[in-house]
Amino acid sequence: MARSEEAVLRLEGVSVAYGRNEAVRDVSLEVRPAELVTLLGANGSGKSTVLKAILGLKPVKKGAIHFLGRNVTRMSAEKIVALGAALVPEGRGVLGPMTVAENLELGAYHRREDLADSYRDVYRRFPILEERKSQQAGTLSGGQQQMLVIARAMMAAPKLLMLDEPSL
Question: Which 8-state DSSP code applies to residue 139?
């Protein structure tokens, strides 16, 4: 695989283990700006593990992960998120007692600038969320909850947005 300085994300021979069991072996991939990349595989093949490793939630046993030109292989999840990575994990994960608007605000917790444009963008993409912005997130339908967790991640203005089983 040719190296590219313009890659948003680059994995080089990444292996991840759960104890003594190797869950992911020698994964290499590159994601360029505005590129959509899909990991396909059977249940239990390690797709979620790769995403968790990219975000620093699972330690890498071997290999390297580069995000925006920086080696983030051993970096904490908090620092990787601050650099601009966002993960929508498998499952709905809304904060049920909070309103839709509060869930969205939480997605932008590390941003300091005015969020008006981000709200407009999210509501343009998911109009039902604007209609329900004062509603408790836990009372939304399953599909609306999934829209909300994706929108919440978008509120972070990520440079890399990773979706784990978005249609589940």
Answer: G
